Amino acid sequence: SSPGTDNRWRHVRRLLERAGPLGGPEFEPDPELFSAIRSDLVQILVVGAGGLGCEMLKDLALSGFVNLHLIDMDTIDLSNLNRQFLFRPKDIGRPKAVVAAEFVERRVSGCRVTPHFGKLEDKPLEFYKQFMCIVCGLDSVQASVIPLIDGGTQGFQGHCRVVRAHATPCLECTADLYSSTQQGFPLCTLAHTPRLPEHCIEFARIMQWPQEWPFGEEVPVDGDDPHHVDWIRTEACKRARQFGIREPDFRLTQGVVKHIIPAVASTNAVISAQCVTEVFKAITGCYPLLNNFANFSDIEGVAVNVVPLERNPQCDVCGQPPPKPLTFNSRDSLQTVINQLKSEHGMTRPSLTACVEGRDVTLYMDLSFLRDQLADNLDKSLAELGLLSNTVLNVTDSAQSGMKPVTFVLNLEDGMET
Amino acid sequence: MSSTNNNNNNNKSNINSHPVGRSRSQLPTPKAKKYDRQLRLWGDHGQQAIEQARVLLIGANAVGTETLKNMVLPGVGSFTIMDHRRVTEEDCGSNFFVELARIGEPRAKVCAELLRELNEDVIGDFLEDRLDVLLQRDPGFFTGFSLVIASGVRHSDLLVLSDLLYDRDVPLIVCQQHGMLATCQLVAREHFVWEAHPDNPLPDLRLENPLPEFVAFCDAQDLSAMDSQRHSHTPWLVILYKFLSKWRQANAGKFPSNYAERQAVRQLIRSGERGESDLHGDEENWRQAQSAVTTALLPSKLPSNVNELFKLADQFWLRRQQLSDSSAPSEDRQAAVPPSNWLLLCRTLAEFYRQRGCLPLCGTLPDMVSDSDRYVALLNIYRRAADADLVEFSRLLRVVCLDIGLSADSVPASQIALFCKNARHLRLVKTASYRELSRPLPQTVARCLEETAEAGPSPFWWYLLFHACDRFHTEFGRFPGDTDDVNFLADAGQLKLKCQQLAQDWLASLATTSAAGPTSAPEDLLHELCRFGRAEVHSVAAWMGGVLSQEGIKLITGQFVPETRTMLYDAVSQTFLPVF
């Protein structure tokens, strides 16, 4: 550790090295704790390097974490600069993740930020496994076993939530909380009875544009191209004049075309900070976690409200109880597993799939022609099939129609772990 | 449908020459692009106020710099940082606007540089003076700012600072951080909120005393004679009015005054529906009319916030009148100084209300299912009436101005229009001075002590302890627990004493000398504060910085409603609660 470490991190170390009566129930202060959170074991992923991502990166770095990963598929735009403070005018056009990583590494020495310029969806499942915690600036990551801290903002409002598999609602459970801001106007209103400037704008975008292709045949609307937006505005104004409606300006037009959500630095700062405080708690255990959804609004006064959301028992993603363990030896055959499913888990004709090396693999299907095709698997050992401890098995019973898959987790007494 | 086919044929193959209509192109400037996302929240006029603001930050610590960051990014005109300290290693573990390479340099200088480079439009400078010295030497320096933020400043200096700023109407934001906790307080003698931006404002329809043009418009429509297209595209406002009138006629002209009566109107409307057997099926407008009954038929009364403004304006004018009537030379600075625009406008508003029995019409209508021509016609009717009210209001304002010797154009037209449009939501926000706020009333203290005895750790206890820490610092030159000594808890004893002394001080003037509840802070809290040793946990500072920066913007722009209570942020429970 560098000579600078001792005093520099005094703030954080106070929380980790000194006992306190209000700490987490199992928290034990320890001088090693600080170096532990800076070891390779602790890797944190920040999803999104925009308004929330930049703030979270800064907050994580100044919380003492040194192994940070940042993923974002966007490049920097001028309109980002009012709040995405790791970017400067000279960075416009460069990938957000790359520039953000550079800035924080330079400013907070010792902090390593690995940028990933690309889509979250393109990453294999393994990618997530290296992280002890994932912090989102986007609502797109499926809940997994590790804690996920999610935050979102819109103008002067925002939320921060903690997601822990089987303990709190997953993102899917409460998907209806994230109401879309999309203005879906009925087409007949747009076509026959427009009343608002917005109707005129949408008419120009949805109906006039593909009729006239003003910038070339099949060239779609690019909300970021001011000339495109201005064409739409001009047409919208003509229509507005026709109906006696107030003519839209450029700002309104672009806002409707791009579904722009207003944003400021202050709200992003609040929500990100709240998220990172929770990350710190999750990793160090120094205080109990937020339970589990916090709302924020500072339009009138400042209001913070914490709600313990309950899991949706009907949820497709997490409505299942925790996976039951199945204990075998890696040399046992698949048939052995199937026999146990029949004898001890009430299944008649079990069918199994598993995630092997990042891909979903059907191990066996007790159903018509597939029975023969996959019959060879029955005699293979679990090791030969590439199954390791902690592999999750999804099992359905072909004899029970409409049954939801039951998850099991493999526990191999002698075997390697995933 | 009009088309631009002529243009299109010529330009289809040449993407570079863009077909632009006859209207002037309004492509945004680079600055408008940069600030686009925030302009949608506070408008160009709000942005202008921000760009004219001068902000002073005292205390370039984590909370202070995080607050300033969120004001520099949106383009505050200029800032000055005052801090006499030098950058330490510790700072580098909590403050984003310092660097290891710059340890030993003046903290104000380093932070000013690193904050300024966030936004090339912003001017920033710094001072290395000690606050207490400058307060004595050049008090005038402080009153030249639009907003002062004092982060981690000691109590004795805050008293002097606030006394200076309070009467000059320079708002002050005070904040302190101890580890996972932080308190904050706005201090402003008077702050006028021009645009509150309420979440769900009631529409301003004037149905109790309908606009003549509106009545004529509705009377000219015969619902029963309409074909199904027209019937299902009649705006709910017209439908509601017609059935309201019917009900009023049958009830000696009175306006529905309770739930039952409003329900009766709703039933009448329902009876007019044609039902789904009709060709066009969906009569959504009729459903809208029925739901609108809840909000559109509430008796209009003068909002209390506006009534307060009337009283203030009247008091001001009365005092002014009394002073001008008396023969003694006026020594009342308040009366000698011309009233601020908002006072002139409020006085006018009171006069308008006295004469007309209502506030100026807002002029907007909510969206509703309708054909274009009738919705547009309704909008125009309300807009014209609002314009007429504005003209009348402006005339009254000119009289008010001339009456007290001010020029008739004292208030810009755009401000008058903004005022009238937001008339129902105007309010004056005010706090006591820091001197008063930081010495809560004995009754308040007694009540808080009693409450916390049952409920456990509360914001009040933390607040009391923060002040006790300040006294500890005054005596020992450091904060409790701010030591490398493993025996940091040794400070708890002294802290406890300070806490008791403080509570007793605060309770001192209570008639009943037996204080309700304990005056000694729970051991847990004492311990925890010592544990923190005034640590600046960055994520906690960043949270507070986010909140305070927006409070600052509210004060600068006069938009949105500021939080005026003393508040405590507890990052452990993630609560933000009033202290008292």
From TrEMBL, chain A:
GO molecular function, one term: NEDD8 activating enzyme activity
GO cellular component: cytoplasm; nucleus
Active-site residues, record numbering mapped to chain: 188
BP-aspect Gene Ontology terms: protein neddylation
Residues covered by the E2 binding domain: 326-413
The protein's enzyme class: ligase
Catalytic activity field: ATP + [NEDD8 protein] + [E1 NEDD8-activating enzyme]-L-cysteine = AMP + diphosphate + [E1 NEDD8-activating enzyme]-S-[NEDD8 protein]-yl-L-cysteine
PROSITE patterns referenced in this protein's UniProt entry, alphabetically: UBIQUITIN_ACTIVAT_2
SMART domains (UniProt xref): E2_bind (SM01181)
EC number: 6.2.1.64
Keyword field: ATP-binding, Ligase, Nucleotide-binding, Ubl conjugation pathway
Family, as annotated: Belongs to the ubiquitin-activating E1 family. UBA3 subfamily.
Function: Catalytic subunit of the dimeric E1 enzyme, which activates NEDD8.
Name under which the protein is recorded: NEDD8-activating enzyme E1 catalytic subunit
Organism from which the protein derives: Macrostomum lignano
Automatic annotation (TrEMBL), chain B:
Pfam families: ThiF
GO cellular component term, pick one: cytoplasm
GO molecular function: NEDD8 activating enzyme activity
Keyword Nucleotidyltransferase applies: no
Keyword field contains Plastid: no
InterPro entries cross-referenced by the UniProt entry: APP-BP1, ThiF/MoeB/HesA, ThiF_NAD_FAD-bd, Ubiquitin-activating_enz
Segments for region (Disordered): 1-35
Gene Ontology biological process: protein neddylation
Protein name as annotated: NEDD8-activating enzyme E1 regulatory subunit
